[in-house]
């Protein structure tokens, strides 16, 4: 009976091993399926990332072009305003210089006239030497 009992136990153990092997086979198949599904999902995510990177690059280029256009437009406007103001400043400078020169000439003429009058007065005074006396230090 021991031999029969041992054979029954061995048969039972073989059955259990077979179940364990079948379980491992199912688990291995499930793990392979999960790995394949995960790989496919990562490929989809990678494609989405590439699409997003392409869109980001496109937006970046478009914004850079707009910024460059605005920069050029503003630089041109600033240059135009600078030239306009410089021209006005130059015109005011010339106008004021001309006025200052005219005033300077006018004052010089007046000073020359006063000097001539003083010279004539002095000459007249010296002619009347006895009547008028100029005292100089």
Q: What can you see in these coordinates?
A:
- The protein is mostly helical.
- The protein has one domain (1-104).
- Helix content is 92%, strand content 0%.
- It is rod-shaped and about 180 Å long.
- The model has no long low-confidence stretch (mean pLDDT 91).
Keywords:
92% helix; 137 residues
Summarize the structure.
The protein is mainly α. It has one helix at residues 2-127. It has one helix and no strands.
- Tally of separate domains: 1
Q: Residue share in helices?
A: over 70%
The proportion of residues in beta strands is under 5%
What structural category arises from helix and sheet content? Answer: mainly alpha
Order of helices and strands: H
Output the number of helix runs.
1
What integer is the average pLDDT? 91
Work out the oligomeric state of the chains in this entry. Answer: single chain
Overall 3D form: rod-shaped
* Gyration radius, in Å: 56 Å
As residue ranges, the low-confidence spans are none
* Number of E-type strands: 0
**Straight-line distance between termini:** 166 Å
